[in-house]
């Protein structure tokens, strides 16, 4: 027994010497655990919740004082108020009309934001037919995301407007009503969004037909309709067009006149809003009429801007470039 005891004592002494040479397995586990805990802490504070770490440092840096409301505002998601209404403006275009789309896009982008209203501007045309369109239009979509391509052959009075309105409920099916109003507009019409919005705020949200009544000299005529320069339907009428037989069976003809026929035959669009004289055609080289006259300050929409000169004249009248800042990099004289 004494021999065994000495052998055991000797072995323990050797183990102690070995322990001086390298850490034990338990020590290695402890070190690894500490390093893992430190790494997890750094991950939480610096990667997953960096703002919380910054917020804590802001609080402690003020020696226990509360951070100011301005300091905290950057960590609070802003609450977006529900808009008074939502309007989709669909501007009928052609796939190859790149220059006109860029001009119109700039015109609307430079208009000030409208308080308590959502207005989306989209360009609408039928199927692409050329390889260059597939490339160039794709680039437009990637950059601006403001194009709707309908499943139809390009046309003017052979169902394009019907396809536009009837396709929207399915295209925009996300639950609930996506828009209160939908406009069809020409790409030679300039709408001043602020005045357009103010004219819509208190109007009916159902069974509404808005625009410039034609013929304007006899707007009570049985066969009147809203001018194709740009007219607005309430969303319930858009849904009706998508499902009703009347518009589906009568698509051919002047699109604005056909729209009036649909609504009249179905006894819909009873809330008619006539925007004469603040919606009208540009006056140049033709007689002045109730729907064609000089530019006026309270204009909501002006039509027949068929070339860049007319666009420039109208935009100058309405001070579209008043926000241009002086710079040494350009001069406008």
From TrEMBL:
Database matches in InterPro entries: Glyco_trans_31
Entry EC no(s): 2.4.1.-
Alphabetical list of Pfam families matching this protein: Galactosyl_T (PF01762)
Pathway connected to this protein: Protein modification; protein glycosylation
Spans through the membrane: 29-49
A Gene Ontology cellular-component term: Golgi membrane
Superkingdom of this protein's organism: Eukaryota
Key words, A-Z: Glycosyltransferase, Golgi apparatus, Manganese, Membrane, Signal-anchor, Transferase, Transmembrane, Transmembrane helix
GO function terms (MF aspect): hexosyltransferase activity
PANTHER family: BETA-1,3-N-ACETYLGLUCOSAMINYLTRANSFERASE (PTHR11214), HEXOSYLTRANSFERASE (PTHR11214:SF363)
Name used for this protein in its record: Hexosyltransferase
Native organism: Musa balbisiana (Banana)
Lineage start: Eukaryota, Viridiplantae, Streptophyta, Embryophyta, Tracheophyta
């Amino acid at each position: 027994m004494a021999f065994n005891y000495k052998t055991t004592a000797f072995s323990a002494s050797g183990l102690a010497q070995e322990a001086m040479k390298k850490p034990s397995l338990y020590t290695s586990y402890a070190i690894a655990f500490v390093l893992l805990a430190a790494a997890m802490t750094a991950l939480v504070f610096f990667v997953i919740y960096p703002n919380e770490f910054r917020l804590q440092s802001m609080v402690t840096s003020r020696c226990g004082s509360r951070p100011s409301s301005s300091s905290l505002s950057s960590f609070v998601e802003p609450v977006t108020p529900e808009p008074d209404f939502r309007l989709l403006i669909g501007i009928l275009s052609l796939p190859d009309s790149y220059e006109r789309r860029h001009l119109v896009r700039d015109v609307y982008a430079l208009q000030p934001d409208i308080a308590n209203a959502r207005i989306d501007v989209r360009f609408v045309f039928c199927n692409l037919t050329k390889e260059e369109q597939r490339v160039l239009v794709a680039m437009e979509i990637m950059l601006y995301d403001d194009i709707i391509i309908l499943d139809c052959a390009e046309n003017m009075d052979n169902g394009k407007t019907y396809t536009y309105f009837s396709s929207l409920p399915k295209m925009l099916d996300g639950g609930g009503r996506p828009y209160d109003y939908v406009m069809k507009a020409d790409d030679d019409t300039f709408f001043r969004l602020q005045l357009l919005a103010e004219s819509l705020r208190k109007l009916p949200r159902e069974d509404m037909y808005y625009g410039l009544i034609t013929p304007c000299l006899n707007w009570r005529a049985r066969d009147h309709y809203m001018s194709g320069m740009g007219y607005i339907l309430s969303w319930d009428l858009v849904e009706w067009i998508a499902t009703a037989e009347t518009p589906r069976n009568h698509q051919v003809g002047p699109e604005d006149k056909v729209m009036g026929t649909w609504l009249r035959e179905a006894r819909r669009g009873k809330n008619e809003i006539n925007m004469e004289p603040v919606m009208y055609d540009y006056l140049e080289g033709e007689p002045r009429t109730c729907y064609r006259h000089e530019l006026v300050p309270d204009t909501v929409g002006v039509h027949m801007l068929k070339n860049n000169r007319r666009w420039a004249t109208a935009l100058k009248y309405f001070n579209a470039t008043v926000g241009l800042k002086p710079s040494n990099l350009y001069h406008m004289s």
